[in-house]
Write a structure and sequence with these properties.
Blueprint (H helix, E strand, L loop, with lengths): L12 H18 L8 H18 L3 H5 L2 H14 L1 H19 L3 H12 L5 E4 L15 E5 L2 E12 L6 E7 L9 E7 L5 E7 L7 E12 L6 H4 L4 H37 L1 E2 L2 E2 L4 H29 L6 H26 L9 H9 L9 H13 L1
Parallel strand pairs: 1-4
Antiparallel strand pairs: 2-3, 3-7, 4-5, 6-7, 8-9
Helix pairs in contact: 1-4, 2-5, 4-5, 4-8, 5-6, 5-8, 8-9, 8-10, 8-11, 9-10, 10-11, 10-12
Amino acid sequence: MVDTAPIRAFLDDQHIALAERVSEFATGVLAPLAEPPDDAAARHEARDLLGKLGAAGWFAPIRAQDWRACCIIREALGAASPLADAVFALQTLGTVPILLSGNDAMRKRWVEPAIQGRAMASFAMTEPDAGSDVASLGATATPDGDGYLLSGTKTFISNAGIADFYTVFATTDRTKRDKGIGCFVVAADTPGIRLVRSLRLSAPHPLGEIAFEKVRLTGECRLDTATSGAGGGFKLGLATLDRVRATVGAAACGMAARALAEALAHAKSRRQFGKPLADFQLIQQKLARMATDLTAARLLVYRAAWEKDRGAPRVTLEAAMAKAFATEAAQRIVDDAVQILGGRGVLADHPVDRLYRSVRALRIYEGTTEIQQLIIAGQLIK
């Protein structure tokens, strides 16, 4: 259950009602699902979850760009099913650049199917030699007649091989660095796209490496020209991340909240030396720190989302603070939960072990903690 009391100041009545509905869905539909045993099963389940989330209407806040609602949904999904949260995250990342662009053709083709859960999205930015340094992308989109030829390799791509469309960032003019990057929507069935390999994480997740081999794209597939002129793909990517980063923190809070609940229940029921673990001061100290860190993280997350929802043009500082603090705090909280549960906490079928394997990636994707700290410092100095 998403506890709205600590963050009530940042929410409207509609968000309170949403938190109750999505919590019931996550608890009743998602939490009972077993973790997929392998990569193939995770890919199959991800598609199934896409349909479930779309049918229930949980992708609608993406289209509305209601970021507090997106945070509430990711918090509930993260607590119940990290894989379902990943599906939601990729629908957001793949769709928001289309929504921010003025490209009506791509909106009409992809946005509604994505929101309804009929089309799976992917976000293809990272490359073998370009991660945090986005301006050094090696993939190229070369003008060809009235379109482009897209070539290059993308790695650490969620939904690789199962997505229906990819939002791809590629260099159009290498001499211009970040100002020479374009953003393109590429249908998965376009000739020349190849799944190079699947990449396995410790927690089942449809991750992989994609090759684009002279993929022929029409001019209407390019998103950035309509909003910021040719070469505005870098800005479009940053604008997307600026909006979505706080929701990563929300997912981390969901995982942390579930870990805290599991640890608290265990501490109250497990007896050692004639009394419950919860009576031991060292356990109490852990629980107190976990709860305080979680509340602080949630306040930072919903502060950032609230600022964006009320019309702030950029929330770069707020989103970076939210993501950095929330994901690092969640890692500590989940780790403390494992410690409190002892041997049970490292059993592969225990929810806390699943959270332990899932939460780690949140400190890396959509900008590492170190990159967030550089962003924060840069904003302060500016």
